[in-house]
Amino acid sequence: MKVIVQKFGGTSVQSARHRDRVVELVERARAEGYRPVVVVSAMGRQGAPYATDTLLSLVDATALEPEHLDLLLGCGEVIAAAVVASCLVRRGIAAVPLTGGAAGIVTDGAHGSARILEVDPTPVEALLAGERVPVVAGFQGRTREGKLTTLGRGGSDTTAAALGAALKAEVVDIFTDVEGLMTADPRIVSDARRVPAADYDEVLQMATLGARVMHPRAVEIARQFSVPLRIRSTFSDTDGTMVGAAPRTLDSWAHREPSSAVTGVTALSGLAQCCVETPAGESNWAWRLFQALAEAGISVDLINVFPERAYFCIPGEHSDRAREVARTQQLVCTVHGDRAKVSVVGSAIHGLPGVMAHVLAALSDAGIEVLQTADSHSTISCLVERAAMEPAVRCLHQSFGL
């Protein structure tokens, strides 16, 4: 049985016209010999009647237990599943709407950010064997005790990847409102182009560092189970971006020059840079500080620790709390707001001399000051003033010939 998972985001199912296009894509998959499994997000975005943010605005979230809030937030996807299933039935396609739990998705009990523990493919496989199309509510699952849980923002991508893994799907199509993975945000770089193929690590890094095309947890699941992903536009017939293991998607020999080692440029704003000076003679200040920040729920990034000081970045909204945490540790934290992180991403960066020099030269030539850096096997990130974020993205995009 040749299975394909087709995930449609909120903008893809928000109107009758858009849902007609969804039906057309399901029909096309069936004509190509696939057994489709459809995963849907809540219809539309904030302001639309059944969008997740609209549902959230109906209540005071702090007045509800997380378990009860999940009952509300899970409604948007259930409504979308029923509506899309009805559209398929109207076109003569036998379709059955399912909640995430009914589709076999079992999670832990962390309401609002549940993790998938396992997927029992039996209920979906039974529908496929009967030549019916399962339409699964994304973003949700069910605990072993039968309680509804939600998976956190972007959770419908995670649902699709998990079902793809459990069903051994030929491919998981992530349909959205963009042509695929882009070399940069088209709102910043007008001539950003579609990346035809990328490996899991590149997409994971780009998603983590600011590209909003797919949820990082979904990419992690797909990589773990070697499920091919395809990021596509609902509204055009372009090939999109195929995401898989590096040997199948990268021409390593064509990416060995520093000037052509990068797949894309991403940007993440809303950051604050912290500098903590250490007391004279203090030896264990760093672990005390970072442990206290962790206990306060503050995530840190771009960490540079020296004997006499530390630099790191945090979400800007946590600035006051970070100062207070430092004060409780008898440390002084100076916070500089309005920072942004600009990153270049590419699997070919690993082990290739000269990429950092190329990045710094490009930013220097553009008159952009680099405040801090970090790197991994496939990324180089630079902290800049927020006002310099867009110029930095554009100059790096041009410098690397993207």
What do you see in this structure?
The protein has 402 residues and is of the alpha/beta class. The protein folds into two domains: 3-177, Carbamate kinase; 258-399, VC0802-like (2-Layer Sandwich). The chain is 33% helix and 26% strand. The chain contains 13 helices and 18 strands. The protein has helices at residues 16-31, 52-56, 66-73, 75-90, 122-129, 155-167, 200-208, 216-225, 246-249, 285-295, 319-328, 355-365, 389-399, and strands at 3-8, 35-40, 95-98, 105-107, 116-119, 133-137, 140-142, 148-150, 171-176, 197-199, 229-233, 241-244, 264-277, 301-305, 309-315, 332-345, 372-375, 379-385. Strands 3-6-2-1-9-11-12-10 form an eight-stranded mixed beta sheet, sandwiched between helices. A six-stranded antiparallel beta sheet has the order 14-15-13-16-18-17. Helix 6 (155-167) runs parallel beside helix 8 and helix 12 packs across helix 13 (389-399). The protein is globular, with a radius of gyration of 23 Å. The two termini are 40 Å apart.
Give average pLDDT, whole number. Answer: 89
> Architecture of the largest domain, according to CATH?
3-Layer(aba) Sandwich
* CATH homologous superfamily assignment of the largest domain: Acetylglutamate kinase-like
Strand content: 25-35%
Q: What general form does the structure show? A: globular
- Give the beta-strand count: 18
- Poorly predicted sequence stretches spanning 5 or more consecutive residues: 247-255
* Tally of contiguous helical segments: 13
Helix content: 25-40%
CATH topology (level 3) name of the largest domain: Carbamate kinase
N- and C-termini, Cα separation: 40 Å
Rounded to the nearest angstrom, the radius of gyration is 23 Å
Helix/strand-derived category reads alpha/beta
Order of strands across the widest beta sheet?
A: 3-6-2-1-9-11-12-10
Number of structural domains: 2
CATH class of the largest domain: Alpha Beta
Largest sheet: 8 strands, mixed
